[in-house]
Protein backbone atom coordinates (compact mmCIF):
# COMPACT_ATOMS: atom_id res chain seq x y z
CA UNK A 1 0.00 0.00 0.00
CA UNK A 2 1.41 3.35 -1.04
CA UNK A 3 1.06 6.56 0.96
CA UNK A 4 -1.86 8.49 -0.58
CA UNK A 5 -0.68 12.10 -0.25
CA UNK A 6 -3.77 13.58 -1.96
CA UNK A 7 -6.12 11.76 0.42
CA UNK A 8 -4.06 12.88 3.41
CA UNK A 9 -4.07 16.49 2.17
CA UNK A 10 -7.87 16.40 1.83
CA UNK A 11 -8.22 15.00 5.36
CA UNK A 12 -5.85 17.62 6.79
CA UNK A 13 -7.67 20.51 5.04
CA UNK A 14 -11.03 19.34 6.40
CA UNK A 15 -9.74 19.09 9.96
CA UNK A 16 -7.79 22.37 9.94
CA UNK A 17 -10.72 24.29 8.45
CA UNK A 18 -13.12 22.82 11.00
CA UNK A 19 -10.87 23.85 13.91
CA UNK A 20 -9.63 27.26 12.70
CA UNK A 21 -12.27 28.65 10.34
CA UNK A 22 -14.25 30.70 12.84
CA UNK A 23 -11.35 32.02 14.92
CA UNK A 24 -9.04 35.00 14.70
CA UNK A 25 -5.40 34.49 15.63
CA UNK A 26 -4.98 34.37 19.40
CA UNK A 27 -1.57 33.44 20.83
CA UNK A 28 -3.29 32.04 23.92
CA UNK A 29 -5.21 29.51 21.77
CA UNK A 30 -2.39 28.38 19.45
CA UNK A 31 -1.17 25.46 21.57
CA UNK A 32 -4.73 24.15 22.00
CA UNK A 33 -5.39 24.45 18.25
CA UNK A 34 -2.16 22.65 17.41
CA UNK A 35 -2.96 19.82 19.82
CA UNK A 36 -6.50 19.49 18.42
CA UNK A 37 -5.27 19.51 14.82
CA UNK A 38 -2.54 16.88 15.26
CA UNK A 39 -4.73 14.68 17.49
CA UNK A 40 -7.66 14.72 15.04
CA UNK A 41 -5.41 14.04 12.04
CA UNK A 42 -3.75 11.09 13.80
CA UNK A 43 -7.15 9.69 14.88
CA UNK A 44 -8.54 9.96 11.35
CA UNK A 45 -5.50 8.42 9.67
CA UNK A 46 -5.21 5.56 12.19
CA UNK A 47 -8.94 4.82 11.83
CA UNK A 48 -8.35 4.07 8.14
CA UNK A 49 -6.32 1.03 9.26
CA UNK A 50 -3.62 1.47 6.62
CA UNK A 51 -0.18 -0.02 7.39
CA UNK A 52 1.61 3.22 8.29
CA UNK A 53 3.12 4.96 11.27
CA UNK A 54 2.40 8.68 11.15
CA UNK A 55 4.27 11.77 12.25
CA UNK A 56 2.27 15.01 12.20
CA UNK A 57 3.66 18.52 12.64
CA UNK A 58 1.56 21.70 12.85
CA UNK A 59 2.86 25.28 12.70
CA UNK A 60 0.56 28.26 13.25
CA UNK A 61 1.72 31.83 12.72
CA UNK A 62 -0.05 35.15 12.91
CA UNK A 63 -0.46 36.75 9.50
CA UNK A 64 1.61 39.96 9.71
CA UNK A 65 3.24 40.11 6.30
CA UNK A 66 6.44 38.47 7.53
CA UNK A 67 7.82 35.51 5.63
CA UNK A 68 7.09 31.97 6.75
CA UNK A 69 9.42 29.20 5.66
CA UNK A 70 8.95 25.59 6.73
CA UNK A 71 11.11 22.63 5.72
CA UNK A 72 10.95 18.94 6.48
CA UNK A 73 13.06 16.01 5.40
CA UNK A 74 12.81 12.28 5.95
CA UNK A 75 14.81 9.26 4.88
CA UNK A 76 12.01 7.40 3.13
CA UNK A 77 11.38 4.67 0.62
CA UNK A 78 9.29 6.85 -1.68
CA UNK A 79 7.75 3.79 -3.34
CA UNK A 80 5.92 3.09 -0.05
CA UNK A 81 6.35 6.03 2.34
CA UNK A 82 5.29 9.60 1.76
CA UNK A 83 5.05 13.19 2.90
CA UNK A 84 2.10 15.55 2.62
CA UNK A 85 2.37 19.29 3.23
CA UNK A 86 -0.86 21.26 3.58
CA UNK A 87 -1.18 25.03 3.88
CA UNK A 88 -4.21 26.81 5.30
CA UNK A 89 -4.56 30.59 5.32
CA UNK A 90 -7.22 32.65 7.01
CA UNK A 91 -7.49 36.41 7.29
CA UNK A 92 -5.39 36.43 10.46
CA UNK A 93 -3.14 33.35 10.40
CA UNK A 94 -1.16 30.77 8.45
CA UNK A 95 -1.19 27.08 9.32
CA UNK A 96 1.21 24.54 7.83
CA UNK A 97 0.69 20.83 8.52
CA UNK A 98 3.22 18.19 7.53
CA UNK A 99 2.30 14.50 7.65
CA UNK A 100 4.90 11.78 7.16
CA UNK A 101 3.64 8.25 6.59
CA UNK A 102 6.16 5.46 7.15
CA UNK A 103 5.12 2.07 5.79
CA UNK A 104 4.95 -0.84 8.20
CA UNK A 105 5.16 -3.35 5.34
CA UNK A 106 8.41 -2.25 3.66
Automatic annotation (TrEMBL):
The lineage of its organism: Eukaryota, Metamonada, Diplomonadida, Hexamitidae, Hexamitinae. Coiled coil: none annotated. GO terms for biological process: microtubule-based movement. Pfam families: Tctex-1. It comes from the Eukaryota. InterPro entries: Tctex-1-like (IPR005334), Tctex-1-like_sf (IPR038586). One of its GO terms (cellular component) is cytoplasm. GO terms for molecular function: dynein intermediate chain binding. This is Dynein light chain Tctex-type 1.
